[in-house]
Write a sequence for this structure.
């Protein structure tokens, strides 16, 4: 029986409590920090050599889909009623809307050092010490909306531009692909700085603090954000019936992207699974 992933703004008090408690249990056991480490390890930009699976590559969507499934399986071993909720940032767009309540993810960071001081993941609770990161800070930080130079969340229109594109991805299959659903959603836009941050990337920047960079898994909002990104992939599939993951076959021997991206039927590290096997997950979960 497929289970349901719900909109974070519709969770009952009990559902919020059980989700939070399951996350805290994984953190206590050290399992949560393994997820942070994996994400740091696979945070390979396209300026570097080697295979890219998680970002700046066609497999951005299946990689995070499988990553979320692993986390969700771990949560459900703690409490079988738990599923990962999603944050619809086209609808919940302020610093105080879902999911930033004290009974779910807690709120914004404080002005001085961006430290999160409210909710279950505040450092002072003793339950959420950051152990894996690219900085030395042991506490979770956020700067919702980037107070010093305000940034807005992506709009429904920004998202529609991505969802309208009928092609999954296009050459050169990296952060410079100007067409294709994958990069329009992942959000590496033209130009530099904040003007180039679109959709998925812009949301990481809007949350700020710990959510920026390879250690972004340290903020549990990572999962709610990526559940929504995952939902959008299913919405895109519904809109473009029959459209598939691309590339269908590996790039040719002369292609710069040879051995640097994962084609439809190739293994998607670190798992023994292919993008093709992750295109249809309706037997596992659905979105409400
Ligand atoms: Cu990621
Ligand atoms: Cu992300």
């Amino acid at each position: 029986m497929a289970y349901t992933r719900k909109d974070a703004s519709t969770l009952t008090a009990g559902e919020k409590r059980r989700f939070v408690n399951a996350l805290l249990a994984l953190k206590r056991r050290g399992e949560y920090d393994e997820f942070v480490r994996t994400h740091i390890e696979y945070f390979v930009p396209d300026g570097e050599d080697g295979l890219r699976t998680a970002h700046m590559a066609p497999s951005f969507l299946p990689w995070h889909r499988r990553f979320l499934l692993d986390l969700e399986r771990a949560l459900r071993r703690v409490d079988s009623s738990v599923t990962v909720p999603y944050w619809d940032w086209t609808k919940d767009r302020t610093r105080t809307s879902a999911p930033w309540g004290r009974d779910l993810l807690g709120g914004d960071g404080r002005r001085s050092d961006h430290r999160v001081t409210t909710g279950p993941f505040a450092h002072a609770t003793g339950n959420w010490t950051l152990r894996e990161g690219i900085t030395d800070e042991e506490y979770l930080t956020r700067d919702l909306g980037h107070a010093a130079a305000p940034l807005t969340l992506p709009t429904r229109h920004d998202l529609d531009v991505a969802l309208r594109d009928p092609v999954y991805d296009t050459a050169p299959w990296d952060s410079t692909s100007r067409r294709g659903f994958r990069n329009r959603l992942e959000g590496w836009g033209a130009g530099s700085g904040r003007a180039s941050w679109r959709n998925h990337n812009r949301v990481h920047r809007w949350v700020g603090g710990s959510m920026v960079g390879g250690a972004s898994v340290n903020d549990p909002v990572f999962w709610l954000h990526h559940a929504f990104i995952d939902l959008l992939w299913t919405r895109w599939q519904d809109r473009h019936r029959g459209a598939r993951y691309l590339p269908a076959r590996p790039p040719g021997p002369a292609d710069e992207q040879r051995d640097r991206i994962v084609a439809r039927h190739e293994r998607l590290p670190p798992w023994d699974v292919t993008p093709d096997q992750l295109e249809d997950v309706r037997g596992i979960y659905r979105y409400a």
User: Anything to note?
Assistant: The pocket of copper (I) ion (ligand 2) is lined by residues 200, 204, 226 (CB under 6 Å).
